[in-house]
Amino acid sequence: MSENRPGILPFKIAVPGEVLADLRERLARTRLPDEVPDTGWEYGTNLRYMRELIEYWRTRYDWRAHERELNRFAHFRAEVPGTAGSEGLGIHFIHEPGRGPNPKPLLLVHGWPGSVYEFDRIIPMLTDPVAHGGDAADSFTVIAPSLPGYGFSDHPVARAMNIQAVADIFFKLMTDVLGYSRFAAQGGDWGSAIVSRLGEVYASSLYGIHLNLIVAAPPRGRDAGELSAAEKAFLAEVEKWRREETGYQWIQGTKPQTLAYGLNDSPAGLAAWIVEKFRSWSDCGGDLERRFTKDQLLTNVTIYWVTQTINSSARLYYEARHHPWRPGARIEAPTGVAIFPGEMVRPPREWAERAYNIRRWTVMPSGGHFAAMEEPAALAAEIRAFFRDLK
């Protein structure tokens, strides 16, 4: 791939100083809510922790340092035309060349409430495995785009920018814009759904797909049989998670615009909405900073703030709910799966094998939903192992 191909423009993250000054002023004027005493995080984001985080964000957090860190990667933007009626958009992406004899192109796809910053530590492990104790033959050229409406990509302004549309746009980014005839793809959260959709409709252009979140349903019909004790326990876990943890899905899937007025106007509100998910969905055992530093949490949140993308990102839930994707048949692209113990859902392998062509299934010892941040070395090793023999 040549970065001089038509329509590809170099991009540098450079947030205007006045945006950062406005952020600090808003943080200084934060009006905090009350809290039922001694409830921890039971009712939502803990007041003591938010007071501490806001003060750190206002007085000690250095966006410019993290901006420089992100800019060590090669960033670009390109206008990517839509397909099948979807809207074309300006898409931001990191494009880091692999250091090896024949690096495979690897599309890395994030989700919500993440960003390309999730891949800050794992990208070097994938592009330069030798520097991290690996084999040069396992190197990848990494392409990590910001989802439409996320980060430094354009905000969609039309309906139905759903999983199908994003998959089409990313396929055209990889093939028409960047010129790759075949590529590998990996994702979690929305990235898992988008990568799965790529595996459904573009399998012939893929080496395979790798997921660190997989959704699968139990067998149905006369051949379903009695569920095992383990299967029943899994369904009970899913029901508990649905009952206790999916309120955000309902509001973002039905009335994201209403929510956005508060979160787009209040950095404290935005941070509270996002940080609570990092605690609930990670393998942190209730201690958020056992997995993430304040700087990591705030760099991700600040990307949402400075790009004003909380509304456009949350709309993906609305579009997926109102314009859903259900695979029409078993996804035959070779599929690797890493099951992290802190992930929100962990279906049995037998269920997944009815929906996917599973070639590798690894139960990981630690880590959660934000695997590339929580366990970058372990996830990188799994990605390398899965794609190593796929030709």
Please tag this protein with its features.
single chain, 391 residues, alpha/beta, Rossmann fold, 2 domains, nine-stranded mixed beta sheet, globular
What would you say this structure looks like, in words?
The protein is an alpha/beta fold and 391 residues long. The protein has two domains: 17-65 and 226-320, Rossmann fold; 66-214 and 329-387, Alpha/Beta hydrolase fold, catalytic domain (Rossmann fold), CATH 3.40.50. It has 15 helices and nine strands. The protein has helices at 17-28, 47-59, 63-70, 122-127, 163-177, 190-201, 229-245, 247-254, 256-265, 267-281, 294-307, 310-322, 349-355, 371-374, 376-387, and strands at 8-11, 75-80, 89-96, 104-109, 140-145, 183-187, 206-211, 331-339, 356-363. Strands 1-2-3-5-4-6-7-8-9 form a nine-stranded mixed beta sheet, with helices on both faces. The protein is globular and about 55 Å long. The mean pLDDT is 94.
